[in-house]
């Protein structure tokens, strides 16, 4: 691997292939979620987080941390999901309400999750195979760790 600031030809090709793969897969999966279940990828991400949390509820700041969304984006999206009946906001001891998955939200995630997982398996997991997929997971964890360290020490952006 090159140590200079510029990517070598092979590195540039691999980086661009990765970006194209990410966009292609993300777009294709989102189109299926939208067409088949009327959900966007952000809807799905919020519903997954809530459905996997204890008692189907989280504080908004916890959702923001897990999704890495800006506060205003999260607030606007949660309002749209609330209007559609997928979540509700409940007052709690804190100044800010808890976000709770509704029966409609639970039904939506239960309906779409198996098909979504099957597509992720078909278009991503099975393409890599077990060994390469495990290596990808390890590499992804390392990248996240390096970015996290950068944000915590060298970066004015924070995490």
Automatic annotation (TrEMBL):
The UniProt record lists the keyword rRNA processing: no
GO molecular function, one term: DNA binding
Residues spanning the signal sequence: none
InterPro entries tied to this protein: HTH_MarR-typ, MarR/SlyA-like, WH-like_DNA-bd_sf, WH_DNA-bd_sf
Record's keyword terms, sorted: DNA-binding
Domain HTH marR-type: 32-132
Protein name as annotated: DNA-binding MarR family transcriptional regulator
Organism: Kribbella aluminosa
Lineage, uppermost ranks: Bacteria, Bacillati, Actinomycetota, Actinomycetes, Propionibacteriales
